[in-house]
């Protein structure tokens, strides 16, 4: 800091030169030379570097203020300081002991639930010395398939991660999202296909030409579904997350190679999938989360515009988003993207094989695909409403030049020239083949019908909540399969009590912790036949929650309420973060 207080370097240099060389008539040139010599001293260089750093930080600070405004920025500073303080506090032995004890207790419940160790199934800790008999394997596999999650008392955080798996649970249609079942006939056909292509690997197109053909066709069919122009190009990936990672990677590389952007920034609605944050972390992209309108649930366009600067590589919109199933205003995002010469990705991972069929199925829709100018890439999951086997998605681009930015090529690898289109090396040809089968089997007619059934059921749920459950209201205007709902302002009903009540009746709902506390259901084919049961349960559970709220002591808290009741404060965030990591650790216990 001291350097800044001194007289500016050029001024001092000039003073020195004047006093030293007054007699010299060399004039301006020698004066300039002397100025330069003196200006290049260590001290001055240090001042100059300091000034450059200050200017850069100021520039960053101003850009940050432009995106978030003063109040929100101050709040962020406050949060950052509290996080530091809380982290320090947690380091004290007493606090460490207390937190550890509580987390351990919570994790005991989680472990009991998701790592059940039933007596009749052996645990395997090492390779069998001698390979097992086929008969033994068949019987063991049958047991594993029927294995149920451990029973624990209702007041456990485990239910939050909805690990009550086992076939019987999802088959009755009470699970939100998770299982995208295309019907038993389709499942049989896809299984046959997977068996036939079990050992194939598209990394070797010369060895498996049939798989290469099927992959190209899956991508081409998806491009057509999303009305890509003739220049359109795409690839398959291992799932929606990988498609999003690839889209972000391509954006970053596009920004670097065509605009020289070295500190890339991405502007996304708060409602986008967490995979964009994952991409930001993995690929060193700064991400700006823009709030959504509290009523429409669409991203606030004015705030998006304010967040764009010379480092921005692209924008993102969802069609629809995961939390409340709303489609962002894609045409307006497209206008912004074009105006600033940046890219626009539309996340249709969830919309997948529903949004392209909304109009054909007779439902209202909003523009979301390549027909919207400015849209440069789209992610579409075949393993969601495409009813393909898990482990496949597509990433689609407006041009093949854009697709190039996600490729990886290494020409001097000792193992030979190495080039892959996506994150993986070897890939499962069987999953691609299974997806091709599902798409060919259903066709436009099949997907239009499934859209009619699924979106129809979602619409029924939304309108019946609005008319029959006065304590609740539906967020935004959901056009696709997700219906999110919250407690109406003024009622005493806690929406998380409702979530816990539904959970007690076997429903697996998703808790949402955004600006509005809410829960949602993602309707699948399995939900369609149980809509009446859902509404009837929801009515009863809401009535119970109202009674509970009336009493002073609400009794035992349910797990959803316990977790989301912690709020979104700094300390809650850190505790939940630790809990989540321990949860992942638990997944690898034998
Ligand atoms: C499911 C989903 C994704 C991707 O999820 P994966 O589990 O990786 O397939 C992305 N965006 C939205 C909106 C989603 O619902």
Automatic annotation (TrEMBL):
Xref: Gene3D superfamilies: 6.10.140.2150, Aspartate Aminotransferase, domain 1 (3.90.1150.10), Type I PLP-dependent aspartate aminotransferase-like (Major domain) (3.40.640.10)
GO molecular function: pyridoxal phosphate binding; sphinganine-1-phosphate aldolase activity
Keywords: Endoplasmic reticulum, Lipid metabolism, Lyase, Membrane, Pyridoxal phosphate, Sphingolipid metabolism, Transmembrane, Transmembrane helix
Major localization class: endoplasmic reticulum
Keyword Transmembrane helix assigned: yes
Region named Disordered: 1-25
Residue ranges with Low complexity bias: 1-16
GO process terms (BP): carboxylic acid metabolic process; sphingolipid catabolic process
InterPro entries the UniProt entry points to: GrpII_AminoAcid_Decarb, PyrdxlP-dep_de-COase, PyrdxlP-dep_Trfase, PyrdxlP-dep_Trfase_major, PyrdxlP-dep_Trfase_small
Sequence positions bearing N6-(pyridoxal phosphate)lysine: 384
Subcellular location, record wording: Endoplasmic reticulum membrane
Pfam families, alphabetized: Pyridoxal_deC (PF00282)
GO cellular component, one term: endoplasmic reticulum membrane
Protein's pathway: Lipid metabolism; sphingolipid metabolism; Sphingolipid metabolism
EC number: 4.1.2.27
Membrane topology note: Single-pass membrane protein
Cofactor(s) annotated in UniProt: pyridoxal 5'-phosphate
Name used for this protein in its record: sphinganine-1-phosphate aldolase
Highest taxon above the source species: Eukaryota
Family assignment from sequence similarity: Belongs to the group II decarboxylase family. Sphingosine-1-phosphate lyase subfamily.
Claim: Transmembrane is one of the keywords in the record: yes
